[in-house]
Amino acid sequence: MNKIAILTNGMSFHNRFFAMEEYKGLYDDIIHITELHNTDLSIYDTLIVTERLSIPHLKQNQGKFISFVNSGKRLLIFGEVLDNWFPTIDWEESEVNFSWWVKDKGDLPLFERNNMHTLYEHVTLKHMKWHYHGTFQPPEGAISLVDNHEGRSIFYIDQVSFNGELVVTSLDPIFHIGLGFIDQTKLFLNGVIKWLRGEN
Amino acid sequence: MKYIGYVANDIQFARLRQKDRDQGLVFIDMYDLPNTDLSAYVGLIITNYVDEDFMMAHKRLFEDYLNKGGVIFSFAKMSQSYLPNAPIWYRSPIAIREREIILREPIATMFEGIDPYDLNYRRGVKGFFTRGYFKELPDGAEVIVEDQLGAPIIYVDRASTNGTLFVGSGTDLYQVYRDEESSANRLPRQILDTIREEYASRKEAHV
């Protein structure tokens, strides 16, 4: 049993996303970021940090996130990691290339890495290609699943820094699904759901 | 300087730069609203990055601010209505690639000198301005911008309160167009000018 909690910030795109039946398989419980400090996370195996959450609230809960992943659980982080709200994540903001697909032979240079990883049983590189807002330098021993043209990661998995698993991606599918545009985000998130739920 | 508060969650996409502060914008973390003296601001911009539960719990703040002659320009795609008589946002049924923003005469001052093409397209990509619309507007509201089917994209309501509420259903017009290399880069500044002019005219009317 993999019991999954997901964080919300009560933003309109969150509210619309959580109203959608087709994504209810992603999570079992929704926790508001303003209530996280009062929430017992020990009943959960996975905690999903959605993109674009209040940075001050994320920082206030830093110890809670670290304790969670150190207790052998999986912490999945989407989006930006500003102000070192999670201390071991090396984040750099990128200029966003949102127009590559309208150019003749345009491409967003992203590269599969470690494609034997089980996520790739459910997700293709194309599912992860819309745009990204930043990149990471994974710590030594962590594995990147997708690198950009500069060799920095937009999706990595760290099983070395903590007792559990830290999954980090700058992709922002929930924002786009909640607002209803960019269809690859749906393919990507559906694959993530299957991966998290251990489906074949 | 007549200051305008920029109300948002503190996230990457809402942070202001020196260029913004130089124009009199002040970042207000939305969670600080109950402790903020809004009389310091001639206007507030409300972004899409706000906790609606919190906004609902403090909706009186906005009503009171407007009733004192304040001006609010909301870019929030509300799924709950915390602004006076403001409708919730709906995704347009028209595909993004086909939807057009239509500027009709008389052109609102915030859109003066702007080619509609530059609003519809950013680097060849459509959809920043035209994701949503409102189904029903409050009594007395005036449509400023609509799509090709006449669905409102921006409206202004001077009737519901003693202040002025502009509501947009596109993106954050201040943030998105401020670095454009096209006529659309006039829009952020002209929005701030519109807010300040509106505040002055409302104050004059209530003297």
Characterize the structure shown.
The complex is a heterodimer of chains A (200) and B (207). Chain A is α/β, with parallel strands linked by helices and 200 residues long. Helices cover 22% and strands 22% of the residues of chain A. Chain A has five helices and ten strands. Chain A has helices at residues 12-18, 55-60, 62-70, 173-179, 184-197; strands spanning 4-8, 29-32, 46-49, 74-78, 91-93, 110-112, 134-136, 143-148, 153-158, 165-169. In chain A, strand 8 (143-148) and strand 9 form a beta hairpin. In chain A, helix 1 (12-18) crosses helix 4 (173-179). Chain A is globular. The model of chain A has no long low-confidence stretch (mean pLDDT 95). Chain B has six helices and twelve strands. Chain B has helices at residues 18-21, 52-57, 59-67, 116-120, 173-177, 187-205, and strands at residues 4-8, 25-29, 43-46, 71-74, 90-91, 101-102, 121-122, 125-126, 132-133, 142-147, 152-157, 164-168. In chain B, strand 11 (152-157) and strand 12 form a beta hairpin. The longest helix of chain B is centred in the C-terminal third of the chain and has 19 residues, at 187-205. In chain B, 43% of the residues are buried. Chains A and B meet through helix 1 of A and helix 2 of B.
